[in-house]
Design brief:
- The protein is of the alpha+beta class and 265 residues long.
- It folds into 2 domains: 118 residues, Proliferating Cell Nuclear Antigen; 121 residues, Proliferating Cell Nuclear Antigen.
- A 9-stranded antiparallel β-sheet has the order 6-2-3-4-18-17-16-10-14. Strands 5-1-7-8-9 form a 5-stranded antiparallel β-sheet, covered by helices on one side. Strands 13-12-11-15 form a 4-stranded antiparallel β-sheet.
- Strand 11 and strand 12 form a beta hairpin.
- It is elongated, with a radius of gyration of 20 Å.
- The chain starts with a strand and ends in an 8-residue tail after the last strand.
Length: 265
């Protein structure tokens, strides 16, 4: 039996929308500690890992381990029933309705309750191992700055170049009619700004090329936090991590993206 209630229904809606940007179908893993998703896109160049801990809920009960197969297009349609201030309840009883999951939307101000029974899918997916890597550069920066930079530069090219050294991080794009870049200087250690500063740890210069399209997918998911952590190494997967609602006890989203290589490498 699974029954959980999240008071911030819009938060759950945004999480599902961020997953839908990358994958069509997921297995929602349900256990004692919370809900989780690990999924790879169809091209197998990116991976998303979502962990929504039981601390995100004001009521959480999960007796056992369950795997709920969901189509993200269907889920996001169901989540349109969620009003701005709605609480959302997710309920699944494997004994009576093993092929369904129920979403309940409570609107306290309107004294209204909406619900939808969604049919589950039978998905057979291999377990995805989260890569463990030692990164040569780790950057923490404002989500607002990251989103604007990725959005601005992606319109010029299908790829983005990220260069990191001890001085800072540079994003650049080169298209048919020119090239552009944005450079963020590493903040000094005494900078006490909590949001806008750029903190940087760099043990080696890094230069990588990534798909603009996938970076835009990641940027949309970053809206769930004020700051992100970007981890990079030459010729290795990019790792982007954020704490949902800026609270590690609520949960996290982690993205991985394979770099692109130029032909002469």
């Amino acid at each position: 039996m699974l029954e959980c209630r999240i008071p911030q229904g819009q938060l759950l809606k945004k999480i599902f929308e961020s997953i839908k940007e990358m994958v069509n179908d997921i297995n929602l893993e349900c256990g004692e500690s919370g809900l989780g998703v690990q999924a790879m896109d169809a091209s197998q160049v990116s991976l998303i890992s979502v962990c929504l801990l039981n601390g995100a809920f004001d009521h959480y009960e999960c007796k056992g381990q369950y795997c709920l197969g969901l189509n993200m297009t269907q889920v996001t349609k169901v989540m349109k029933l969620c009003g701005p201030d709605d609480h959302v309840i997710i309920r699944h009883n494997p004994n009576t309705e093993s092929d369904r999951v129920t979403f309940i939307f409570e609107s306290p101000g309107e004294r209204k309750v909406s619900s939808f029974d969604l049919r589950l899918m039978s998905l057979h997916t291999d377990s995805l191992g989260i890569p463990k890597m030692q990164h040569e550069a780790v950057i923490e920066m404002s989500t607002k700055s990251f989103i604007k930079t990725i959005t601005d530069l992606s319109q010029f090219s299908e790829t983005l170049v990220i260069d990191v050294n001890q001085k800072g991080i540079k994003f650049s794009a080169e298209g048919d009619f020119g090239e552009g870049s944005t450079f963020f200087q590493a903040s000094p250690p005494e900078d006490t700004s909590l949001v806008e500063n750029v903190s940087l740890t760099c043990t080696a210069d890094v230069s990588c090329i990534f798909s603009s399209r996938y970076m835009l997918y990641f940027a949309k998911g970053c809206m769930l936090a004020e700051r992100i952590q970007l981890s990079l190494s030459n010729k290795q997967l990019l790792k982007l991590q954020l704490d949902i609602n800026n609270d590690k006890y609520v949960g996290s989203i982690t993205y991985f993206l394979a770099p692109r290589f130029v032909e002469n490498e």
